Amino acid sequence: MRGLTVIGGGHVGSVLGRLFSAAGAFTVQDVLSRSADSAARAAAFIGSGHAAASYAGLRSADVFMLSVTDDQIVPACEALAAAVPLQGAVVFHCSGALASDRLHPARAAGAYVASVHPIRSFADADAVAAGFAGTFCGVEGDRQALDVLLPALTAIGARAVQIDPAAKTVYHAAAVFASNYLVTVIDAALRAYQAAGIPESVARELARPLALESMENAFRLGAAPALTGPVARGDMATVLRQQDAVMAWDAETGQLYRALVPPTSALAERKRAGKP
Q1: N or C end of the chain: smaller count of CB under 10 Å?
Q2: What are 8-48's pLDDT values in tens digits?
Q3: pTM for the whole thing?
Q4: Which among 53, 69, 70, 52 has a CA at the least distance from the CA of 61?
């Protein structure tokens, strides 16, 4: 069984380390984190592995996982390449925003590099570890690295999706649109209801069926067929009246409304053309 070293003792590294170890995909050797205490906690969560005190204390391994923050990926990779022989090893990071080319110090040292981004929230490490099966992971990198990592991901129940590394930032922005900005739009709807005199708790109940049904239709039918409302009907007079009213009520929300009109109009054109 290949040996795995975990660099970064947060939730992502701890969960993946535990899953890889439990599935017999890798044997966890060393765990390195920002402090000895956090490395020890991560090793305890994983259920195996030696808590290392520094890069100098790391042993050679077949696979190195950098589950550090985005701004620490390059420094961590540089420190790893300076401390441990990497010829023929696999080095991968877990960032959704950065491509595997950020691991150039490891590649220069003879390693094969990749990125593996689990597409889910890791706020509750225990819950994620218990329910990880079926999780999509965006992957890209050297073929030799993926030949090692893809079977390991299959072993823990992950569903790997290979992505274009040149579009990694756009790929990550997709998750922001589907998650963060969706919440922002719902917040605008809730505040607009409240501006009409509806209590916040009632506003949530009004918006909930509209939002849920729209999302279900978009995922079931495709975005264009799911589109309804004045833009879909071509009722631009209503759109302009709403835009002016929202702008008068709250300028920032009005700007958001106005910004959404052109892409929604393009979506309506796709609907009229019978495109998903």
Answers
A1: N
A2: 999 999 999 999 999 999 999 999 999 999 999 999 999 99
A3: 0.88
A4: 52
Amino acid 163: pLDDT: 96
| Residue 20 contacts residue 129 (beta carbons within 8 Å) | no
How distant, in Å, are the alpha carbons of 31, 174, 207, 228, 262 from that of 211? 43, 19, 6, 12, 20
- Count of C-beta atoms within a 10 Å radius of residue 203: 18
The number of angstroms, rounded, from the C-alpha of 184 to the middle of its chain's C-alpha atoms is: 18
Q: Which residues of the chain have pLDDT under 50?
A: none
Distance CA 256, CA 242 (A): 12
- Residues constituting the chain: 276
Number of Cβ within 10 Å of residue 19's Cβ equals 24
d(CA 168, CA 102): 12
Terminal C-alpha separation, the chain: 46
Distance CA 132, CA 124 (A): 12
CB 254 within 8 A of CB 247: yes
Structure tokens at 250: 């709250």
Report residue 127 as tokens: 């819950």
Extract the tokens encoding 26.
């890798």
- Tell me the one-letter amino acid at 172: H
pLDDT of residue 248: 98
Question: Phi, psi at residue 199, to the nearest 5°?
Answer: -60, 150
Residues of 123-158 as b/e, b for ≥16 C-beta within 10 angstroms? eebeebbeebeebebbbbbbeebbebbbebbeebeb
Express each pLDDT in 255-266 by its tens digit.
999 999 999 999
